[in-house]
Amino acid sequence: MGAGTSPIHRVAVIGAGAMGAGIAAQFANAGIGVDLLDIPGTGSAARNAPAQAGLDRQLKTAGFMHPDAASLVRPGNIEDDLARLAEVDWIVEAVVERLDVKRDLYARINALRKPGSIVSSNTSTIPRSELIAGLGPAFASDFLITHFFNPPRIMRLLEIVSAPENDPALVARVKTAAAAILGKTVIDCRDTPGFIANRIGCFWLALGVLEAKRLGLSMEEADAVMVALGTPNTGIFGLLDLIGIDLIPPIWGSLMQALPADDALHNFDLPGDETVRALLASGRFGRKSGAGFYRLSPDKSREALDLAADDYRPRQDPAPGIGRDALALLKRDDKFGRFGWRVLSGVIHYAAAIAPDIAGDLGSIDAAMTLGYGWAQGPFALADRFGATAFVSRLAADGGPVPALVQEAVQRGAFIDRRGGGLATDGSVYAPALSGSLLSVAKDQAAAVFETPAASLWDIGEGVACFELHTKLNSLNPAALDALETALDRVQEAFGALVIGNDDKRAFSAGADLAFIMASIEQQDWERLDGFIRRGQDAFSRMKYAAFPVVAAVHGLALGGGCEFALHADAIVAHAELNAGLPEVKVGLVPSWGGCTQLLVRAGQDATGPGGPATSAAHVFQTIISAAPSSSAAWARVQGILQPADEIVMHRDHLLARARDRAVALAQAGYRPPEPAQLRLSGPSGKLGLMAGVNSQYELGLASQSDLAIADSLATVLTGGPGSYPNGVATEADIMQLEREAIMTLAKSQTTRQRIAHMLATGKPLKN
Ligand code: NAI
User: Fold this and answer.
1) 3-state SS of 545-558?
2) Domain shared by 292 and 361, yes or no
3) Are 139 and 234 contained in the same domain?
4) How far apart (Å, rounded) are the C-alpha atoms in residues 639 and 602?
5) How far is residue 37's CA from residue 14's CA, in Å, rounded to a whole number?
6) pTM across the whole model
7) Average pLDDT score over residue span 577-581
8) Pocket flag, ligand 1, residue 194 (CB < 6 Å)
9) Is 16's C-beta closer than 6 angstroms to any atom of ligand 1?
10) Is 422 inside a domain boundary?
11) What percent of the chain has pLDDT over 70?
């Protein structure tokens, strides 16, 4: 949703620290204008220096999806510019965590703000009731807590605390805007300390550290067990190093102080732990100070703290065979299995016991842990995989009471139902799922139109089908191309439009199956390789010129062949977080499934287009030779992968629905396949121009012989090679033929073979 259709046209953020400036940047990323106010600069500093500094930090730390978005943020200060608040629809307060400072500010805000404007606080610890005390009913009606996570661009969770006195329409407006503009998944929290994520997250980390010590696991072992359960790769000790050991006393201390004496967090006193105290006393605060639980030794080798001795030793390979299978781990009858069980069952026990006080349903708690703490699955979904009944039997066998909500879930068969909705915390019903895409709904309703091991076709309603890849990272292998051919037939028979996309967390498609290409090269089976290239070109071209509209819904990785797949759609709807590009040169190849051709078409190479052929070839050459995927959809637009009419969507879960809307709109507008492109080429003289820069890099020793050969092949494709075309105008088929010739030549070279082998073995490019 852009500013035009949103109920939010302009916002103000007060406090330009890590959070405030990050929140301002995320609004700007969605095209919304922001006033960012901080205290005035003192001494000789400019009045807006503190706000400007916050803005500059966001530019340095990639808070903006594209630097141009920063121009939407207007820095200011709370002495000179507070009157600007009268112009905005939403005021987000993100100043220091001090009740007196926040309340003083609210009184001033209240006198100036537009009636009915939203006021929200990013507080992490102060109850809503205390923040608004004495500010009157109108303020109370418009005020809520919106608790973002750091960094605000990346973390998808937004916790909201509202109250019955809030205007329900205003709360609904906040939720809609938070999802559509900011891309956040919103969870409702009660007004309790730490809300949901930090309450459970702090308990998890404290329990994990203290249980690891009690059961005698090393940090590496404990962290490996946590990773097997699906928590982030840092594990618990690595995560605490990242958060900062110095923040343990304020965060855990204030949470413990705010919680009642019988809260189970008091049984796991992290600030009081002697290892934590020793780290604090010696200034070892984690990554920010170079040492914490882990450190890099003076000779740069990785070391870990020996928990028993408070001394560092080389970091060890944790334990053979811990693996990544959560269920297998929980069933192990050794210290790893016992530790994993203790932590997971402890978190679930705690969460289920306090759930009625903090949340409306268990799905909110799972979402808090997946979106706020990076767990692959929430604790309750994990318990369901274990089997709710088996889980509770083991919990009961451990002794102690089983929380009522756990018993209720066992009666009903699951904590989370089949549709992803969590059991309500009063045990009455399952709530609707908090998130989910159009595809997950379709999968719940009916079987696939057809399904192969590589891909499926789904009916996603309104006459639209969705082609979903499900190979590893959704790479395109021969079986995936077979499935695409079948899908095109089926859509032609029974649907009005096609969406290509999926719900994978990481990739739209990471590209052509490199292992298949490598096998063909090793066997010198050039016919097979050429056949694979030709089939991809044919299938994608067929898709482009099909009688129905095709919309690509791209997100995450859309690389190489995956990017080329999307480039053949009539329109692209992109998630804002998009890494799209054609990095083939890194493995010694050039894009050959029509990628060069379609980028030329996009660059206005059309015979009737405005750009001269040399200029647009240079733009495409630069995009491909730099081999740098976009860091966002905004960058993909600059690179020419997305076109001006292609839509960017902020919320990942909305992507397929918006792609379907676009497909329906194209179909209803009387869709006709595009006219075949006619490409004007710059020929041998254009090629000389393209190569000039690379040649001088080679002379300076900045490019290798193989870089030169790859660039030469690419330049040949983009300028039309030695061939002559009627009236100097080539067809897409002509350029695709050049693509094929180029890749077949490169595939036979030793350096390309080395590059591919290195990429397959290490995941990293080889410079040779
Ligand atoms: P910070 O210390 O980085 O930034 C606070 C900013 O507020 C500073 O730039 C300061 O100059 C400014 N400020 C102080 N008094 C002000 C006033 N009267 N008017 C305008 N500006 C004023 O703090 P951070 O980390 O950005 O936290 C801000 C808020 O967000 C706090 O309430 C914190 O509890 C909360 N929060 C912090 C998270 C984090 O990970 N850092 C996560 C979630 C919430």
Assistant:
1) CCCCCEEEEEEEEE
2) yes
3) no
4) 10
5) 5
6) 0.94
7) 98
8) no
9) yes
10) no
11) 98
